[in-house]
Amino acid sequence: MTATLHGKRIAFLATDGVEEVEYTQPRQAVEAAGGRVELVSLEAGSIQAFNHLDKAGTYDVDVTAAQADPQSYDGLVLPGGVANPDALRADPDVLRFVRAFFDAGKPVGAICHAPWTLIDADVVKGRTLTSWPSLRTDLSNAGAQWVDEECHVDNGLVTSRKPDDLPAFCAKLVEELGEGRH
């Protein structure tokens, strides 16, 4: 990865049920490129990650979605897992936070089930993206075009299907974050 993210602040939005590898690998890629990462969540404290259905590590929250200022970040990453985006998509502060990145043309990455949150933030209409295959109908019903690709980029929105796609996702994510606003 040749892109540099020095001086860039990237929000990772996640809560309990996040798929651990979908949080840790993109975070490591962003940090390795020089970016500063903050974990944004529903509540202060820590979140419980999972490895599929088994509990994994816990991660300290830096700021809640209600308190986070999207203008102070250069990009946003939404890891997946099933429970994580299902909880996030029901929170009005999360939806406001996510929409602000799209309104500002800032790069966003979403993997696996994370596009559920994008659907409820009303930011997928007219876009092409990929996700875990079971979200295909949800995305189509929300006005998006779904593709079955390892990684897809649509005007700064980087999406991937599953943990196996993480190498491609991380590389494209760092590239798009490095490019900045679209």
Strand and helix layout:
Layout: E1 9-13, E2 18-19, H1 20-32, E3 36-41, E4 46-51, E5 54-60, E6 63-64, E7 75-78, H2 83-88, H3 92-103, E8 108-111, H4 115-120, E9 128-129, H5 136-141, E10 145-146, E11 151-154, E12 157-160, H6 166-179
Parallel strand pairs: 1-3, 1-7, 2-4, 3-6, 7-8, 8-12, 9-10
Antiparallel strand pairs: 4-5, 11-12
Helix pairs in contact: 1-6
Account of the 3D structure:
This protein has 182 residues and is α/β, with parallel strands linked by helices. Helices cover 31% and strands 26% of the residues. The chain has 6 helices and 12 strands. It has helices spanning 20-32, 83-88, 92-103, 115-120, 136-141, 166-179; strands spanning 9-13, 18-19, 36-41, 46-51, 54-60, 63-64, 75-78, 108-111, 128-129, 145-146, 151-154, 157-160. The strands form 3 sheets. The chain has a 7-stranded mixed beta sheet, with helices on both faces. A 3-stranded mixed beta sheet has the order 2-4-5. A hairpin with a 2-residue loop joins β11 (151-154) and β12. α1 packs across α6 (166-179). The longest helix is centred in the C-terminal third of the chain and has 14 residues, at 166-179. The two termini are 20 Å apart. The model has no long low-confidence stretch (mean pLDDT 97).
